[in-house]
Fold this sequence. Notes:
The protein is an alpha/beta fold. It has a single domain (12-193, 223-246), classed as Rossmann fold (3-Layer(aba) Sandwich), CATH 3.40.50. The protein has seven helices and seven strands. A seven-stranded parallel β-sheet has the order 3-2-1-4-5-6-7, with helices on both faces. The longest helix is centred in the middle third of the chain and has 28 residues, at 106-133. The chain is globular and about 50 Å long.
Amino acid sequence: MGGFSFDLSRRNALITGASSGLGARFGRLLAEAGAQVALGARRADRLQSLADEIGDRARAVQMDVMREADIIAGFDAAEEAFGGVVDTVVANAGIDGAGMATSMPEEEIERTLSVNLKGAILTAREGAKRMIANKVPNGRIVMIASITAFEPSPGLVAYSASKAGVIQAARSMAREWARTGISVNTISPGYIRTDINADWFDTEPGKRQMARFPRKRLMGEEGLDAALLMLCSDAAEYITGTDFVLDDGQTL
């Protein structure tokens, strides 16, 4: 039987939305697995603190995924720091875009779609351009979606639409790049207590929502670790265009 490993010691990774929450955890996780990690986000002070905490394997890269020029500059900075092409991309940057459909301002709808969907596509394609140009044989792109992509989510219309778009964009890009060796996949997490939703689940409606989950709890951030490591590693050679629903049974 063939063996496999989640060792990332030969990989150069770039993670967006890395200044806090899941993105920060992803940065620590990939670095612990051996990767060199570029931590991308807008908040430079938080990024630098995290990079200092992780150590020599990490670099802080200030970037705003709503701006293609920022994304290009972020990849340039990462590759200069690594001395090689970024071959592993985690498109994680996102905002919650909460608001009822009839009252949400147009500007907030546009911003949610721009960060969550446009930003994810621009990040993935910039990584793919460089992997293809450098003939990287086993590039990895992981895009973070959400169970709201396929579960009706009142109050999260723009957010859920953006995450559904991420899944379909990833599948389409996986098909476009299938012969390049790049694997493009998505992870759709269930509800995890993060900076974005912590206040909600402390409210009475939030507590009622949690009580409806089969296991009556929120996921821990560690629930995504194994899948992310696998999808960023050589073990994902035969996995592309796939969405991994990791939700502790919340959608059952």
